[in-house]
Amino acid sequence: MTTGWARWKTMTSPATPWAGVSIKTGGDPTLRRNQIHDNKGGGVHVHDNGLGTLEDNDITGNERGAWDIAEDCKANVTRARNKG
Predict the structure, then answer these.
(1) How far is CA 6 from CA 1, 28, 31, 37, 51, in A?
(2) pLDDT category, 41, cuts 50, 70, 90?
(3) Among candidates 15, 70, 13, which has minimal Cα distance to 40?
(4) Over the stretch 10-30, which tens digit does the pLDDT of each residue have?
(5) Region 43-49: what's the mean pLDDT?
(6) What secondary structure, in 3-state letters, does the chain show?
(7) What is the dihedral of CA 66, 72, 78, 84, to 10 degrees?
(8) What is the pLDDT, as a whole number, of residue 84?
(9) Which residues is 54 bridged to in the sheet?
(10) What per-residue string of b and e applies to 2-32 under the rule 16 or more CB within 10 Å gives b?
(11) Against a cut of 0.85, is the pTM above it?
């Protein structure tokens, strides 16, 4: 997601060769109660000044871990279940 906002609720992200969710360049989504799993990259990748609210998500089975949040980003993560 780049520049703007979106609301995703109760979604299942299928396996991809990259991150399950990528947020960048001012993107500011709200993700609640989603399943992000079995990706070749990380579960959620936030970079290039990305923002976001991520609540109550299951992030499992991703080859590069659950989260990759760059230092210049402000992602608010609560109640996440992480297992890679």
Answers:
(1) 8, 7, 8, 20, 11
(2) very high
(3) 15
(4) 677 778 899 999 999 989 999
(5) 94
(6) CEEECCEEECCEECCCCCCCEEEEEEECCEEECCEEECCCCCCEEEECCCEEEEECCEEECCCCCCEEECCCCEEEEECCEEEC
(7) 10
(8) 57
(9) 31, 77
(10) eeeeeebeeeebeeeeebbbbbbeebbbebb
(11) no
Nearest to 68 by CA among 46, 40, 84: 46
> Distance between CA 38 and CA 51 in Å, rounded?
23
d(CA 4, CA 65): 26
AA letter at 45? H
Residues 47, 9: Cα–Cα separation, whole Å = 22
Whether the per-residue pLDDT at 8 is higher than 70: the answer is no
